[in-house]
From TrEMBL:
Endpoints of the signal sequence: none
Annotated compartments: Membrane
Matches recorded under InterPro entries: EBP, EXPERA
Domain EXPERA: 63-206
PANTHER family: 3-BETA-HYDROXYSTEROID-DELTA(8),DELTA(7)-ISOMERASE, STEROL ISOMERASE
Protein name: EBP cholestenol delta-isomerase
Gene encoding the protein: LOC116058568
Family as reported in the entry's similarity comment: Belongs to the EBP family.
Length: 231
């Protein structure tokens, strides 16, 4: 698409978006997605194998192991992928580093990333520097059976859910102007599917953490009540 003001070609919406420093990717969509999903898959597989080793199987059931795998993948995506955006958002349109090209590809589903939208920069920076390290901390906490593991799960999941809701809601208020509405890949896969996961899964983990922490508090209350009656 030719920008009528600057003469710069770009594939983003709205069509009159000004991106004077834009340089087209020289990596294909398949290369970029293959990298993203293969590395995420490695994190998932390695974490699954670690949680299944002797000494942890008795403590971690299948669903708990999957939850730990989720946090490992989140650590990679938040810390590395989104961390890159938080550091280099201002040069991404013209940069040809692999992760910059990844963001230029994703921006076909949400051009706010290629114009350094204020909300997007702030939201991704918080996500990268808080929920990235916290996600790896959660993996460690579950592997070592730390008593605060479900507190971490609750905090991270609430943060992810809040960010994702704001992400969708701000774009809704903009009338979905930053993507080709209804496009099967850019809108439905990039914008909707790849982000709605951070609503559905955190919701499940919030409920799980709520139940676990409530059960622990109930046990503590019952123990105190039993001791007071004995005294």
């Amino acid at each position: 698409m030719m920008d009528s003001t600057t003469g710069v070609l770009h594939p983003y919406w709205p069509r009159d978006l000004l991106i004077p420093t834009y340089v087209a990717n020289d990596r294909s969509m398949s290369e970029i997605l293959a990298f993203l999903f293969s590395v995420s898959g490695v994190f998932l597989l390695v974490t699954w194998l670690i949680t299944g080793q002797k000494g942890t199987t008795g403590r971690l059931g299948t669903w708990r192991r999957l939850a730990v795998c989720w946090f490992a993948v989140c650590g990679f995506i938040h810390g590395v992928i989104e961390g890159w955006f938080s550091l280099y958002y201002d040069i991404i349109p013209g940069d040809q580093s692999f992760l910059s090209q990844l963001w230029k590809e994703y921006s076909k589903g949400d051009s706010r990333y290629v114009i350094a939208d204020n909300f997007t920069v702030c939201m991704e920076t918080v996500t990268a520097w808080l929920w990235g390290p916290f996600s790896f901390w959660a993996v460690f906490a579950f592997l070592t059976n730390k008593p605060y593991r479900f507190v971490l799960q609750l905090i991270i999941s609430l943060g992810q859910l809040y960010g994702a809701v704001l992400y969708f809601y701000t774009e809704h208020r903009d009338g979905y102007a930053h993507s080709e509405l209804g496009h099967p890949i850019y809108f439905w896969f990039y914008f909707v599917f790849m982000n709605v996961l951070w609503i559905i899964i955190p919701l499940v983990l919030i409920v799980d953490a709520w139940r676990q922490l409530s059960a622990a508090q109930t046990h503590t209350d019952n123990t105190k009540s039993h001791k007071s009656k004995r005294n």
